[in-house]
Amino acid sequence: MKISAGTPDAMPPGLRSLSYGIFCWANRRPRALRAVGALFRLWPFAGGWFGMAARASAVKGVLTRPQSFSNSAHAANLAAGDYLIGMDPGPTYHDDRRLLDDRLALLAASLPAAADQEVQRRVEQLGQLGANKSFDLIDDYLMWIVFRSMDPLFGAATGKVVAGAHGNATDPGLQRQYLLEIRYVAGQLLAGSTATLRVQRRAELCSDALRARIAAVSRDIQQAWGVPSTASTITRNAAGLAWISHPVTVQSGALAVQELLRRSKVHRALRAEAQRLGPAGVWQNAKFRDLVREHVLELMRFRPIFPLLARDVPRDTEFETGARHNAPCSAGGKMAIWSIAALFDSRVVKKSGQFCPARNWGPHQDLRWLMFGYGIRQCPAKDYAVEILTSALIGLLILPELRLTRGEGKAIAYDGPLMSRMRVNFV
């Protein structure tokens, strides 16, 4: 349902703001979520009462049964219209997935070189700043690295998607407008129905603008993609690809850096290795890149962008919680998947509370990527996102040491559950 300016709130006065505030508070505090998740792991029968899977075995079991636990739970929060993440398997899903896989295949040819190139350009600019000048890690660094790295997704149509049919594709103002537009659309997926009506309305306005933007250049996109799809198919997939690819990767990078700055010993050890290799050597040394990639994955384990996932229950079923008896799930209901709890399940992740990028996951290697989902519905772009963030982190390691800015108000600002600003400066 569209949220117009005069739409009354179905919830009692103040309740929506309260619930949204609690949701945002919890989403910014992964340690609190891990603590609650640990209780559900300890007493899995309690999770069964509330329809919550927390143990690794339970989470993987639910995520490998998409017919019983449906991604359609996301559909109501897709402000820009239907897309793969909210679809059940079927002809439309499979056709759209093939189209997406074809676009992502282009990233395999351009990464990590495209990301490295943009990172080096940004690092050169930032290196000219003094110790007293701060910059925004999101708006001045991550946002542009991800943007340039994902150019191949729209190919020759990228400029028109960003600036419109007659705009100047190199205009930074138009580029920033586009990136903010898709940020708010993506934010609605994370905030969901708990969001205030104002936040939902903003997401819908940005979604309308995004769909109009895509529709106006759909023929250009069709030619760039080289597919005979209908205009509606192009609009659906191009809009979805725009909002889910860039903002989610940027936000994941910001969360990873936030976690790294909390771990000064880890940060300094990485910086020491980068300094040993030198500004040129870090880009050529495969072992160092592997080391940084392992750190990115471990940082994301501690700070996943989607710590909880929802699923619809289309028919009566049950799921294995890890308790002696399975938990029933009634048709028409929903259940919650505590991915952040499963990532710290000591039954399969030894010394799960320790930060250990080189951990031997043994037969549970697939669990290491759980922050991207699991099974056939796992994020198909996960490898590319990690490559981009690996390049971004390498760039930060060859700059002077970073810290969150002090004395300018809060260094980190949030827009609901999303981090909208992260100001840092060199030590």
Automatic annotation (TrEMBL):
Highest taxon above the source species: Bacteria
List the Gene3D superfamilies.
Cytochrome P450
The molecular function GO annotations come to: heme binding; iron ion binding; monooxygenase activity; oxidoreductase activity, acting on paired donors, with incorporation or reduction of molecular oxygen
Q: Which residues cross the membrane?
A: none
The record's annotation in InterPro entries points to:
Cyt_P450_CS, Cyt_P450_sf
State the protein's name. Cytochrome P450
- What is the scientific name of the source organism? Bradyrhizobium shewense
